[in-house]
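Model: You mentioned two targets. I'll fold them one after the other.
Researcher: Yes, keep them separate.
Model: Target one:
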Amino acid sequence: MELNEESRQAALRLARAGDPEAIAQLLNHALKPKAIKAKVTRGGDRLKVMLEGASVPDETAMVAYLRKSLTRLGATGLNGVQVYGRQAFAAKPAWMQQFTLTPPSSSPERFVSATSKSPKAVPSRPRSTPESHSKPKSTVATSTSQQLQIAFGAIAAIIFMLVGANIRSITSMVTGTPILIARSAGSDGIYEAPIVERIHGIPVVHVIFNDQVFPMMVDTGASGTLITPQMAAALEVRPIGQITSSTANGVAVFDVGYVRKIEIDGAQVANVPVAVGLADLEVGLLGHDFYRYFDILIREDVVEFHPR
């Protein structure tokens, strides 16, 4: 869409007030030379930007560009941005990143051209994020044997959760009950998480733990959240106890700790007890500690969390 100076200034005024449609209008005008389209939604102080092109938009270049442009814009009330990239008509995003907006050092400016040279800035990445987080699905396809290991780990995790192992009751004296501390959904009041993969039919979504992003399986039958040993190391989860449970692989001992918060699309649950899975668990399992506040609808390409 072409913008004359008058319509550009009108869009800038609305965008600086945090209007997602105006931000999308400016982005689409700037990204037109690259044949990339932007869809923008807002949930509270968080902006979600979906970038689509004939091929998957370049992750590093687009995140750096959006960080620069949105920082310069200085939109009122916006603190965080989630960026997704996917090929047009693809069912799932190929990558996702998030970053925090800092106040502009000078007065707000218009969106820079997407064809102008950008500094070689490295976009913000949550530290120790699994490699699969930023790569297209085609490059991280798991082999059959690996998928079987993951599935076995998931089954063992579910058995652990369902057979006499209610983590919340074990750790409640230490960590307290998980509580919903923030809700900042859009006008429809629904939180959404794009499905990035399915492991034997179980949807996998990106979940934020203590400001770091990890893929997690969504299985509504799990009573507690199970994280991988790699996640526990990245999040510096300190064991506060252990639990012994029977799994499909025999009796196993699991460390139990807690994370400061779990977040999906602006909905945050604080003070969440978690169990640390065995070494063969490659993808974590999101549990009822988070689900308890929502009715869940699993669609073809997205999981919807409807607040109760």
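Model: Target two:
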Amino acid sequence: MEIKKITYPKPDEHYNKCFFHVQKERTEFQMGTVFLKKGTRIPEVGFTRHPSHEISIIQHGNIQMLNEDGSIKGYLKSGDVVYLEAFEAQAGNILEDTKLIYMLIKT
């Protein structure tokens, strides 16, 4: 068993802090926290697609999620839990300083 305290990256550090990254046979998962600064876009241009399913819990903040055509997909706010399919396009405008906990699951 490994126990870690939940901490978030500082504004001047990389936005992602990984707590666990486990790979066993055909399953891989990663869990950590993210800090996103108000006024930024993630990614800066285009869209991110990664080979893992993602579950994120928004601890604090507000993110305007975007569709690939640039329209608004929805808003992620404090208390929301979001699931994204593997390879689903994702991008967002950070409307408030945001902290979230994420888990990436690859099978």
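Researcher: Noted. Anything on target two?
Model: The two ends are 22 Å apart (CA to CA).
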